[in-house]
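Hi R.,

Quick one: here's the DUF2971 domain-containing protein sequence you asked about.
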Amino acid sequence: MTLLTASPTDSSVFDKPPKGRLEFLHHHQKALGIKPAQRIQKRRQAIAQLKAQMESPQFPQSVLSNVGVFSLSEDPLNILMWSHYAHYHQGFVVEFRIPTRWFRHYAHRIDRLLVSLPVTYSDQRPSFKYWPDDNLDAITTLLLTKSDIWSYEKEHRVVKTSGGDGVYKYARDEVLSGVIAGAKMSDDNRQVLADIVSTIKPEIENDLALYHAKQSTTEYSIEVPDHPRISPEKQEKLFPA
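And here's the predicted structure, written out as tokens:
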């Protein structure tokens, strides 16, 4: 389970290209001296081909085959998340501090810096209508929509558009900022985790620290004492319901 301490506010890096695939085809054909009537015919053929691709049952899989997705959550205090993804509170949370400004300077490194997009939750499956120059929206919808039954996860996703699934390096020295041991982690594992954090701390730009979660004695909730960013009160201000 991972914690997203901030989410992107500048979407300029994700703006779609100014010219779509068919517009490029039009200019390319014009440069080759193809007559207007032939250009119209070829454009119609290209539209039909793209339409057939997007309406094919294989379209979602063909998109996903080259995509890698890394999922994060903005809520480190959710009991279900600890139960499902941290071995019933015996595991740990890794906290990342992700840049939210000057995205243009990071455009070539957004996956390594874990720059992410929020997931949209819906009670309807995504449906795709054909439009020639906006395939990016269809792909984004496919990758960033989940059933609203999962809305408690408050998920964000880092999307890598090449290479498919796998294990990839990230800019650990720049974005890793904290580790939270689960409330039911064994003493031996706590010591192992503490040793690892102590070993890598000199390599990390952020003030890396190890925190310890505990279960509230009065409520069905998780607390992380002394954590400067994720007290329940600060969580409410950062991520209101």
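Confidence is low (pLDDT under 50) at residues 1-32.

Cheers,
M.
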